[in-house]
Amino acid sequence: MRLRSTVAGGLLSLALLAAGCGRLPVEQTERYVPPDQVTDFHALYNTNCRACHGPAGENGPAMDLANPEYQALVDDATLRRIISNGMPGTQMPAWAQSAGGMLTDAQVNAIIEGMRKEWSKPNPFQEATPPAYEQPSGADAKTQTADVKQGQQLYQAHCASCHSGHARQELTSPIYLALISDQALRSIIIAGRPDIGQPDWRHDNGQLSPQDVTSIVAYLSSLRTNTAISAPPVPLSSRR
Amino acid sequence: MPRMKRDAKTVYNWLERRLQIEGPVKDAALHKVPRSTASWWYVFGSAAFTLLLLQVVTGILLALVYSPTAANAWNSLNVLNHQIPLGWFIRALHGWGSNFMVAIVFIHMCQVFLFGAYKFPRELTWIVGVFLLLMTLGMAFTGQVLRFDQDAYWGLGIGVFMMSRVPLIGGALVHFLLGGPNISGATLSRFFTLHVFVIPGLLLSFAMVHVWMVLKLGINEWPMPGRLVRRETYIAIYNRLSHEDGIPFVPGAFWKDLIFSGAIVAAVAVCAMVFGPYGPGGMPNPSIIQTTPKPDFPFLWIFAILAYLPPALETPVILVAPILAIAGLLALPFVAGEGEKSWHRRPIAVLTVSFIAVAWGVFTHLGTYTPWSPHMNAWSSDAIPARYTHSATPLVREGAVVFQAKQCRNCHEIEGVGGQRGPALDDVATRMTPDEMRYKVVTGGGNMPAFGKNLSPAEVEALVAFLETLHPANERPAYDGALRETSTHNGSPPPVTGSK
Fold first, then answer.
1. What ipTM was assigned to the predicted interfaces of this complex?
2. B483 and A CB contact within 8 Å
3. B277 touching A, CB under 8 A?
4. Does residue B94 register a pLDDT over 70?
């Protein structure tokens, strides 16, 4: 009896050993990939982007990348430029090694490819044609002159119903405007932010024309003044 | 069959006539030991020796493939892990065998200390044992270097930085150890030589001497309170114990050693199988800065102590403390070579061991979780919980972006994610008024650097606007009572621009 249970135990442990040798730790010891050779989109996104742009491209404090309208609005070259060199006037830093960041060009491309694959949807605008991503320059600019006064009226008509009330709700605060660029304002107005309920350029009160978008941005831009912002004095009572 | 037996006997006799080893082996195996030493407390020494043999065998197998050159070491470990059948298992056995050996050697030392076994006439056994301990740690450290990954590279870097603080000869010492001014191929050759030839050779010889003395002086009898050790009488008492109430070492005490050693080897095998080999982690390339190197477990406590030391104390502690500790261990049998053996009557000994064990445990735990190191990826990889910004104002949302982009997160946790260098900020608004936050951010203080020069006023304001929202829903944020009395804003946050 005793002998039999010993033999059975021995055989069992041998079987376990054999089973273990085949699989267990080989899976656990993943081969190390040097950080500049990681090209998996999820790995790259989770290390570099998710803190500001949200766990799955949305619900982060910064731009909603999972918004298919945004994906349709911005072309690869622009994305590459923004990721590589950062976005002036915002907190978006430069990620390319050529600009002092940590990512290689291949990794930047992998991120763009991954975003397209994950978040692009065919025909997000349906019949509508959105205003261009960038404010037109050159010949086109003549048809869309930025009109600050008109922008103010449009702001009141289209934006103020939500962006008003509590002092800090307003977009017109020079503090907020100092931290966001005209292009970023324009992108949000056109593509909206579905994750937080901000409509795109076709909202309830009607559709904004390209001219309207340009004017609203021009109005907000005219409020941006660095001289108005200075850190308020700190009262002595709070010194510690 | 009988003929084969006869032939074997002939061969044996031929060998025995020349070697004459049967007598000593029989003497060693059958010598009488006090009945009380056949205890489960007396198995750690033999287990340590068994582990040493395991390390030798697995080490030889690894050396067949390992290539001690800077260019190939890391690759050859990956070949072992992934291409050679069971190569990973041999590596895992060697790595876990090392952990177990360090642990068992320490347990053995504590047991010997608490049982008073270092007292007369076993002083030299203890002293040799201290050197065996140091060599075991030396093997663990040099082995970690041979793994030649990022942990190895930076661990070695820290080791030589410590050595470079030795007055006068520090630079020469470093040069000698590294085979040059920096960590290179020559360094790896040196550590290979140390790990494979020098230290194991010494370790095996010292272990032989250690065992020899155990055989000659007898295994320490079970300490009885009140039975004091005196140079004049001890030998007679011991001989009486082992002869009047003794049992032969084999099998009387030996079977417990055998079972325990077997169990330990099995435990090593199970750990190796379940947890797998150690690394190799990242490439040992100092240009890769995305790394958080950490020493192996025997040295984590040093890592923690160094992190907590004030800079002024570093050099004295690094250079003087080990010397004092080793000197103390070596002096122990001379200071307390006689007297009480039982832990029942040695409160200071028990307290010392308990204190060291608790301190070691605490520092190892701290070293494992490194709360003092910034979490360097937090700013770009740890997302702000969506509920914090979902219905936030645009300014608060910008503040959250500033919070991430300016890398506040690397030192401050939110919802348990992020660095732990500074306080968690989930309820910072209940502790600080906006003015206090502004002041703290701009001027720093305590451990926090001043960010005044790195943040624009708008960034500070946005950041504070975000921090102000960090309080539990049912708890009011902190406010400045005096300011509130005089403010026309009546409880609303103070105006951001203009005068108050």
1. 0.83
2. yes
3. yes
4. yes
The encoded tokens of residue B451 equal 């960010």
Confidence of residue B296 (pLDDT cuts 50, 70, 90): confident
Chain B environment of A235 (Cβ under 8 Å): 435, 480, 483
CB contact under 8 A, B404 and A102: no
CB contact under 8 A, A21 and B86: yes
Average pLDDT, chain B: 89
| Number of Cβ atoms within 10 Å of the Cβ of A222 | 14
Q: Is the CB of B380 inside 8 Å of chain A's CB atoms?
A: yes
Q: Are B137 and B357 in contact (CB under 8 A)?
A: no
What is the C-alpha separation between B297 and A65, in angstroms, rounded?
42
Query: Token pair of A176, please?
Result: 């907020």
Between positions 35 and 54 of A, the ones with CB within 8 A of B are: 35-36, 46-52, 54
Chain B residues with beta carbon closer than 8 angstroms to that of A54 = 383, 386
CATH number 1.10.760.10 given to A133-227: yes
Q: Count CB pairs under 8 A between chains A and B.
A: 185
Q: Are A151 and A215 in contact (CB under 8 A)?
A: yes
Disruptive mutation site among B397, B440, B487 for chain A (greatest number of A CBs within 10 Å):
B397
Q: How far apart are CA A51 and CA B263, in angstroms?
A: 48
Please compute, for residue A23, the number of CA atoms within 13 A of its CA located in the half-sphere on the CB side.
Answer: 4
Query: Is residue B34 a contact partner of residue B249, using CB atoms and an 8 Å limit?
Result: no
Q: For position B500, what pLDDT does the model report?
A: 33
Class of the CATH domain delimited by A33-124: mainly alpha
pTM over 0.80? The answer is no
What pLDDT is recorded for position B498? 35
Q: Domain-by-domain residue ranges, chain A?
A: 33-124, 133-227
